[in-house]
Structure formats: C-alpha cells, structure tokens
Amino acid sequence: MSVRLRSEALFAESLKHTPGGVNSPVRAFRAVGGTPFFAASASGARVNDVDGNTYIDYVGTWGPAILGHAAPAIVRAIQSAAERGTSFGIPHAQEVTMAQRVKAMVPSVDKIRFCNSGTEATMSAIRLARGFTGRDRIIKFDGCYHGHSDGLLVKAGSGALTLGNPDSAGVPAAVAQQTVVLPFNDPEALRAVFQDQGRDIAAVILELVPANAGLYLPQPGYLALLRQLTRDHGTVLIADEVMTGFRLGPAGAQGILELIPDLSCFGKIIGGGLPVGAFGGRADIMDYLAPLGPVYQAGTLSGNPLAMAAGLAALEALQSTDAWSRLENLGAELEQGMVAVAKAAQIPVQFQRIGSMFCGYFTNQPVWNLADAMHSDRARFARFFHGMLDRGVYLAPSQFEAGFISTAHTSADIEATVRAAESVFASW
Ligand code: KE4
After folding, report:
1. Ligand 1 close to Cβ of residue 247 (< 6 A)
2. What's the 159 CA to ligand 1 centre distance in angstroms?
3. Residue 144 backbone dihedrals phi, psi, to 5 degrees
4. Is 212 in the pocket of ligand 1 (CB under 6 A)?
5. Phi/psi of residue 230, each to 5°?
6. CA atoms within a 13 Å half-sphere pointing along the CA-CB vector of 301
7. Are 354 and 217 in contact (CB under 8 A)?
8. What percent of the chain has pLDDT over 70?
9. Over the stretch 179-215, which tens digit does the pLDDT of each residue have?
10. Res 314: pLDDT
11. Could you check whether the bond before residue 36 is cis, i.e. omega within 30 degrees of 0?
C-alpha cells in the first residue's frame, strides 16, 4: 500500500481554493474513490508523486505524452523557443512549418487553424460547419466526448460520464435541442435520422474510435455508411482526432480506418504537452473562417511559438523513428499479458485495444457502444485501479477513459504491469 500523506494534505488544501480540489474533474478520483495523488515530476514512462512513490504511467497526461514525459527533444525545443519569446501574437515561421507538416501527414487536411485546446478545436469546427451549410442541427454519439462547449455537453463521455452528468447543467435547452445524440455502431439509427432530417444536419462529429467511455471500435461498414449519408445530404463530417491524431499513425484513426472526413480536430500530441488544439480539412470549408470568410474564430495564444516548437519536436521524433510499430508491439504485449492473467484468474475482462490505446472492461461481453460499456462492473474497476496503483501502476482513474502507452515504455514495464494485475486478481 503506497503512503500518500503529502498528497492528502495538498488535496485538503486545494479543496479550500479550487472546486473539487482539481482543475479538471476526472483528476479527482471520484469514479474510483480515494484521494488523488499529486505529481511531483514525471520522466519517460513514469510519474513520481509528492510522497516519493513512482508509478508506471498509462495516462500520459491523457494522451500528449506519446514520447513519454520530459522527452529531451521536446524539452530542448521549448527551452530554445522560450529564449526567443514565449508569445508573439504575430505570425511566425513555425506556425507555417507546423501547418505544412500536419498537411503532409493527414491527406484530408487542405488548410488548418491552430488554437489552444481540443474543446476550442471542436467548438470552432462545429461553428464553421454551421456557417458553411447554413444549418443549425448537429449529430454526436452518446459516450463520445468532444470537450466542454455547450452544444457538445449532451450525453457526453469522459469526465461528464464519469461524474454521472453526461448532460451538463448550464447548457440552454435551446442549444441542447440542436444536438441529436445517437447510439454508436447503430446503422439503422443513422439511416432513420438522415431520412427524417438529413437536410437540416450541419455536421456529424465523432471520435472514429470512441475512447471517452473506455474504448470501443467502429463495426465493419459503419463509418463507410456514415460517410455516404453525410455526403448524400451535404452534411459536414467532422472527425475528432484530439486523442487518436498522430497516436494511431501519421494520419491518426482516419488513416488506419481509411475514412476521409471533411474536417478533423486535433490537440494533445501536436502540442508536445503544451496547450494546443487545431482543426482543418477541406479548403472550401476552411476558407469560411475569418478573416477570409464570415465565421469568426480567434485566440490570443493560437499558434504560439512554444506549443508549435514542442509539437514539431514531437512529430519529428515520431516520424524519424519506428514509433508507431513500437507502440503497436507494446500494445500487443500488454493485451496478450492482461488477457492471459484475467483468464487464469477466471475474471471476466474485455480488453479492447487499437495501437497504443486500450481499455479493460470488467464484463464478459464485447463492448461496441456506451450501453455495452455501462454493463461493465465499475466497482470492480475501482478495486482494480487502486490495487494497481498500490503496486506502482497508474491507470486512468475511471472506467470511462482509455489508457495510453508511450514510446518510453519498455517490454519490462509491460511485464511488470501484467504481473501487478496478476497479483491484484490473486488478492480478490
Ligand atoms: P481539451 O479541451 O481537454 O484539450 O480536449 C477536449 C477533447 C476533445 N476531443 C476528445 C476526443 C477528447 O478526448 C478531449 C479531451 N480528452 C479528455 C480525456 N478523455 C481530457 C481529460 C480531461 O478532461 O481532464
């Protein structure tokens, strides 16, 4: 059992100053119970808490740390950029270089706009789709999370789902009514909505691999149907690749799943751990953005030199090594090990994975959508989470999150993780 007295004292103090003691709800451990630990430092595949405990980290600051924490190339890039000024609010060359690199990696992106978070990216992409089509209604999928802009906090995943309020207070009914929520992987529901109101739908936004209710995959043919229906009805198809972008491969989930969206949203990895977001896609749509077109979108720190330098260093490191095949191999090792120890212990676990993203549900049924995910045993997940934490492995503190492997993880880390799981199961 890890002793975390300093974290507990810090959390008690934080509760006096910050709602829930955290600056983002999912960090509060509300889904798994107990007190969150406070990070002191992180390096490579490990995070160290203020009580001197060290954990193999599978959260990776929710996706950005694909190269591990404090990756030397990223640290150097930030240091060097900072010495030339931390923000200009003036166009600078690295914004252009970053745009060129993203375009070269993601063929569906003709033009791109950088911003400061995934929330900004998806919010802006929705506004752009509405301005381009002249329509108001959007479609999202239950359990998918696209950040916390009003219209997208309807049946949302991630922290909203974790806290049991997938429909946030404070969102005007008039706004929520413009958001149609469908179950994922339900072709008939898709066909019915487009038959009934296809001409009124400005955009469909989705995670091509939903990873904010755990992790589940599109069933064969589903994305192709979605692409066909959106194209037939003049609806903008927005791929939210804030988590999957540049993680599942150079062209993210759309590259793996061979889908060409009209717009894509990015974040996390392209900031190298600094605040960043981006949205891009068809030039005829993107050119509706101010100052060219009538759809306004802006940001003081958009394209700031630090995030651009850190993001470029991250993308360069990914492209100049065998990063994605390494991540796939480590992911396969983890999956094979976890499935084996759960089977040996006769514990029903559905381990779902794509590349370096994974989720273990405590159920013996496959998970294809939010309803399936809700059938998993969350109390068991909470016990598993703490059992692993006490054995030096930090998993996402919610069943409704995905895990992330970095290139800094080793086969020895994976083996230690599997042994820890075996020990937890044996203790039940
Ligand atoms: P941010 O605004 O948090 O940068 O990005 C929002 C967002 C958009 N789209 C997807 C697919 C996302 O997963 C996210 C944010 N991811 C969560 C983790 N599932 C962030 C963690 C948190 O909210 O603290």
Report:
1. no
2. 9
3. -75, 145
4. yes
5. -65, -40
6. 14
7. yes
8. 100
9. 999 999 999 999 999 999 999 999 999 999 999 999 9
10. 98
11. no
CB 162 less than 6 A from any atom of ligand 1:
no
The class (CATH top level) of 90-319 is alpha beta
Beta-sheet pairing, 357-361 with 350-354: antiparallel
Taking a C-beta distance cutoff of 8 angstroms, is the pair 136, 130 a contact? yes
Distance CA 277, CA 266 (A): 6
Q: Could you read off the pLDDT of 94-120 as tens digits, one per residue?
A: 999 999 999 999 999 999 999 999 999
pLDDT above 90: percentage of residues in the chain: 95
CA angle 395, 401, 402 (to 5 degrees): 70
**Residue type at position 232:** D
Atom of ligand 1 nearest to the CA of 401: 19
Q: Are strands 277-281 and 357-361 parallel, antiparallel or unpaired?
A: unpaired
User: Ligand 1 center to residue 410 CA distance, Å?
Assistant: 26
Per the document, the length of the chain is 428
Q: Where are the domains of the chain?
A: 90-319, 322-360+405-428
Catalytic positions are 145, 240, 268
Can you read off the two tokens belonging to residue 109? 């992106």
Which pLDDT belongs to residue 155?
82
- 122 CB under 6 A from ligand 1? yes
Q: Which ligand 1 atom sits closest to the C-alpha of 144?
A: 11
Stretches where the chain sits below pLDDT 70 are 1
HEC string of the chain equals CCCCHHHHHHHHHHHHHCHHHCCCHHHHCCCCCCCCCCEEEEEECEEEECCCCEEEECCHHHCCCCCCECCHHHHHHHHHHHCCCCCCCCCCHHHHHHHHHHHHHCCCCCEEEEECCHHHHHHHHHHHHHHHHCCCEEEEECCCCCCCCHHHCCCCCHHHHHCCCCCCCCCCHHHHCCEEEECCCCHHHHHHHHHHHHHHEEEEEECCCCCCCCCCCCCCCHHHHHHHHHHHCCCEEEEECCCCCCCCCCCHHHHHHCCCCCEEEEEHHHHCCCCCEEEEECHHHHCCECCCCCECCCCCCCCCHHHHHHHHHHHHHHHCCCHHHHHHHHHHHHHHHHHHHHHHCCCCCEEEEECCEEEEECCCCCCCCHHHHHCCCHHHHHHHHHHHHHCCEECCCCCCCCEECCCCCCHHHHHHHHHHHHHHHHHC
Q: Which of 279, 275, 274, 276 is nearest to 241 (CA)?
A: 279
Give residue 226's region: left, alpha or beta (phi > 0; psi -120 to 50): alpha
